[in-house]
């Protein structure tokens, strides 16, 4: 399966994730939903947030030009909020899944989708 198919089929097609991108931990966008563009600075900040979750917690993150506040951050997952919308970012062995959901979808609906795909990718070496 292509990386784009993971974005389209496993994330966006669920109806629980509005926008998604898969980043390589070494940098670069492997796949993204149409029109969802993370700047080079935003990509670097997402990657750096896993090395320094305390800074991510205090400063939040920007995704596609939108500022999100950090609800929680650790070395695997970062959960963000912006008004009624939110984002779930999960690190695998080689990739980082960056997803956004929009109201009326809530975190408990989107989070298992993203975490489940991350678990699968980890299980197959990614």
TrEMBL record:
Belongs to the profilin family. SMART domains: PROF. It holds the Pfam family Profilin. It is found in: Cytoplasm, Cytoskeleton. This is Profilin. It comes from the Eukaryota. Keywords: Actin-binding, Cytoplasm, Cytoskeleton. PANTHER family: PROFILIN. PROSITE patterns: PROFILIN (PS00414). Coiled coil: none annotated. Its main location: cytoplasm. SUPFAM superfamilies: Profilin (actin-binding protein). Occurs in many kinds of cells as a complex with monomeric actin in a 1:1 ratio. Binds to actin and affects the structure of the cytoskeleton. At high concentrations, profilin prevents the polymerization of actin, whereas it enhances it at low concentrations. One of its GO terms (molecular function) is actin monomer binding. Gene3D superfamilies: Dynein light chain 2a, cytoplasmic. GO terms for cellular component: cell cortex; cytoskeleton.
């Amino acid at each position: 399966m292509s990386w784009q198919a993971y974005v389209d089929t496993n994330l966006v097609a669920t109806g629980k994730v509005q926008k998604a991108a898969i980043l390589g931990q070494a940098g670069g966008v492997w796949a993204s939903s149409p029109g969802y563009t993370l700047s080079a600075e935003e990509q670097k900040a997402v990657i750096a947030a896993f090395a320094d979750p305390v800074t991510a917690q205090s400063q939040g993150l920007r995704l596609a030009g939108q500022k999100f506040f950090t609800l929680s951050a650790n070395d695997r997952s970062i959960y963000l909020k912006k008004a009624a919308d939110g984002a779930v970012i999960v690190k695998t062995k080689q990739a980082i899944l960056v997803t956004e959901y929009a109201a009326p979808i809530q975190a408990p609906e989107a989070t298992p989708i993203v975490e489940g795909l991350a678990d699968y990718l980890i299980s197959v070496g990614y």
